[in-house]
Amino acid sequence: MQYKRILLKLSGESLMGSRQYGIDPERLKDYAEEIKTIVDKGIEVAIVIGGGNIFRGVAGASNGMDRVQGDYMGMLATVINGLALQSALETSGLKTRLLTAIKMEQIAESFIKRRAVRHLEKGRVVIFGAGTGNPYFTTDTAAVLRAIEIGADAILKGTRVDGIYSADPEKDKNAVKFDNITFKEVLSKGLKIMDLTAFTLSEENNLPMVVFDMDKFGNLEKLINGEKIGTLVQK
Q1: What does CATH list as the number for 5-234?
Q2: Taking the model in full, what pTM does it have?
């Protein structure tokens, strides 16, 4: 599959590296170098990053906090991660823009579709922060929504595992990896890739998805070069 414009979805937890919480500067540096390799090839890159390394709304709600309040705190966590990633990318020599779904004029631009697309066309890496701006929606849903809005060719979901398996490979040694799978097969097999709202939105808009191991250096570039990395999900 040929890519011109992609949306890279990263989890907040991935930024922790070997730490228990927070942000690992070395992991940030590695990600920035990986992303730079594909931007240098002319690929337009947008990024959505989670906030689970700092705060999760669902976890807060389970401890008695108001869910809406918790989700807004989670959105702020994604902006903190976005700022950290932006700094790392600019240190590596890339031009970036951070666009947020909640107004924060002093630190980021407000999300406007045409503005985001223009930044991408000019070769800037665009980071989308604050999720969709609404509680009860995950950053997975935000990633699919933004990918559709900007006309991305695919979502590349960077995870800790090298694709989609029939079961959790960290718990089941007999788990089988899929190289290609359809949206319907994922649903019928009950495989957990992202939340159902995000997944359904991706299927309805015929937006392909690649689940791959982002922590293995070089995988992102190999994927862009057409090598069979991870698992491709499409209709």
Answers
A1: 3.40.1160.10
A2: 0.94
